[in-house]
Amino acid sequence: MSKPRLILFSDLDGTLLDHDTYDWRPARPALQRLDALGIPLVLNSSKTGPEIRALRQQLDNGHPYIVENGAGVVIPAGYFGAGPEEVITTGASRASILETLGVLKARGYRFTGFADLSPAQLARLTGLDEESARRAADRIGTEPLQWQGTAAELERFRRDLSDRGLVLQQGGRFLHVMGQFDKADGMVQLMQRYRAQTPHYRCVAVALGDSPNDQAMLAGADLAIIIAGENAGRIQLPSSHPVIRSAEPGPVGWNRCVLEVLSRYGYS
């Protein structure tokens, strides 16, 4: 029986990228092996399009990518056949999200969003350089924020957002205000395209993440890989769902788990 076609969907911060340094190099052996085998690696992150494009250049990654927790799916020109680059967007616009947040802030909720900060301030908050901070602020359908109120106020804030059709998700570093979508939506769209591209192969979706905003993606994949980290224990999946948990955090754990998966599916 032929090997299945593997498609990997990976979160970035705390997963492929080190939580503190943003370094991906400990994962180089697995990345090189995926490239040699022609196995797609789809970056699926809360990061923006400009941020992910810059990282894709470093990784020499030419595959589709999912931005801002599923706000947009970008398919490179000619990837699934002739045609220009496709950008598929869902959910509320960032402008409408910022309008809602302005209303809620006026009601007394205490938080700081990326839109409230200059590039220099955002760089200090995130540890990025200023150019990278500008890329992080160039968003289409989400707004990250730091919460400065109490836990009880946060729950009321979450309900007020829900009443307005918005969702509050915990990411690796920030809370993210967004529309009614998640990382799994982009994964489902792309898996449909991959399966149509190779109808005679069984396509297997493998998802890697480290925090609750990865949960829907992990649950929707055929195999979930939970990378060790501060928020990894908060991910709740059905007991019957196939799961690998890394012993090490970040790209070290990512590397070891991806190589294990390749061996499991006969790609050793």
Structure characterization notes:
37% of the residues lie in helices and 22% in strands. The chain has 268 residues and is α/β, with parallel strands linked by helices. It folds into 2 domains: 5-89 and 182-264, HAD superfamily/HAD-like (Rossmann fold), CATH 3.40.50; 94-178, Threonyl-tRNA Synthetase, Chain A, domain 2 (2-Layer Sandwich). The strands form 2 sheets. It has an 8-stranded mixed beta sheet with strand order 5-4-3-2-1-10-11-12, with helices on both faces. It has a 4-stranded antiparallel beta sheet with strand order 6-7-9-8, covered by helices on one side. The protein starts with a strand and ends with a helix.
What would a concise description of this structure say?
This protein has 268 residues and is α/β, with parallel strands linked by helices. It has nine helices and twelve strands.
Identify the notable features of this structure and list them briefly.
268 residues; alpha/beta; Rossmann fold; Threonyl-tRNA Synthetase, Chain A, domain 2; 2 domains; eight-stranded mixed sheet; four-stranded antiparallel sheet; 9 helices; 12 strands; 22% strand
- Which second-level CATH architecture of the largest domain applies? 3-Layer(aba) Sandwich
Judging from the principal axes of the Cα atoms, what is the shape? globular
Give the CATH class of the largest domain.
Alpha Beta
CATH domain topology of the largest domain: Rossmann fold
Largest sheet: number of strands, sense, barrel closure? 8 strands, mixed
- Number-wise, the strands total 12
Tell me the distance between the termini. Answer: 16 Å
| Helix/sheet category | alpha/beta
- Whole-number tally of structural domains: 2
